[in-house]
Amino acid sequence: MADGMIEIITGRERRRRWSVVEKLRIVAESQEPGVRICDVAARHDVSPSLLHGWRHLARQGRLRPGDAIDFVPVRLASSMSEVPAGPEPTAPVTADHGRAAIEVVLPSGGKVLIRRDTPVAMLRAVIAGLRG
Fold it and tell me: By the 8 A CB rule, do 55 and 75 touch?
């Protein structure tokens, strides 16, 4: 037990629960120059392998506070004269486009159709792919 503290867990739950903010704080501490991961893990009474897992999730962008949705910048044109010239959009390949909640037209003329029931994780992956 770190710093002579003992945590007593009562009831059926046997695992400690860490908030995302706590995990990110510990991960940030473990990334300081000259810091050993095993020392940070011991200081917070966390297994070094668990801390390595948190660091991996943070690097992948999968450990973020809250379940906030990332947004991409959008420019609205008030008239067609403000729309940048580009290839004429083509009809969607899929017949399921009637259920699309969001339609993204790419500069190449291709389209990305996003349905209302698309999981947030998948949407994040698509946006990350479009950003390059």
Answer: no
- One-letter amino acid at 2 equals A
CA distance 19 to 1: 20
Helices first, then strands: H and E counts in the chain: 4, 2
90 close to 110: Cβ distance less than 8 angstroms: yes
Dump pLDDT digits (tens) for 88-102: 555 544 555 556 677
Which pair of structure tokens corresponds to residue 100?
């699309």
State how far the Cα of 78 lies from the Cα of 101, in Å rounded to an integer. Answer: 21
Whether 105 and 74 have beta carbons less than 8 Å apart is answered as no
pLDDT in tens, 46-80: 999 999 999 999 898 888 776 445 556 666 665 55
Q: How far apart are CA 22 and CA 25, in angstroms?
A: 5
Question: Bridge-partner residues for 102, per DSSP?
Answer: 114
pTM over 0.70, yes/no: no
